[in-house]
Design brief:
10 helices; mainly alpha
Length: 200
Amino acid sequence: MNGDSDSEEEPGILEISEFERAGLSVVNQLKCDTFFACTQAMPRYDEVRQKWKKVCVELGVARQAIREEFYDKIQKGLESDPLIKPFVKPWRASLAKEQGRAIDQSLVNALLSCWLHTGLWLYTNQDRLFLLERFFGQSIQAHSEDAFRKRCKRLGLIGWNDFPSTYPEAPLRIRNHNHLINEVREPWEQFFMACQAREG
C-alpha cells in the first residue's frame, strides 16, 4: 500500500489514472468488456501498455512544466525581471501554442483514453481515426490520416506494426463502417473466439 501511495505523487501518475478511467468509461458505454479483455490477452500487449504508461507520464510532466515554468511566472508579472525578460517571448509563444491546440489536445486525450481500452493499437491508422471520430465526434474530424499517423508517432505510442514478426498485418479491421462491425483476421480469429468463450 505504501508504494502505491508514494507513486501517486510522481508526475504523470494522475494522467495514467485519468486515462484509465476515461478508457474504461468508453468500454462500459460500448459494452465491449469481453472484447477489451481479449485485446489484453494478445501478444505484445504488456509492451504496448508499458509504452502507453510512459507516454502518459511524459505528457503529465510536460503539462506540469507548462503550468509551473511558464504560466505562473508570466501571470505574476515577473516579465519585468531582467533575468526573466529574455525568456518571456518564447514562454508566451509556448503558452499560445499549447493553449491554441484544442483540437490536437482533444486528439491526444482521445488517443490515450482509447489506445489500450478499445484496442486501437490493433487497427490500421485509417480504422483508428474512423473509430475516434465515431467515439468523439467533431473534435477529431479535423485530422487527416497522415496528420493522425504523425501525431501517434510523435507521442511515442506503439502498436501492432511495431512487431512485424508477430503481426504481419493489423489483426483487427472495421468490416462494416455503418454498424461498426469488427473483423478479426487470421490467425487471430480462433484466438478471439476462444478468448470470448472463456470471458463469456
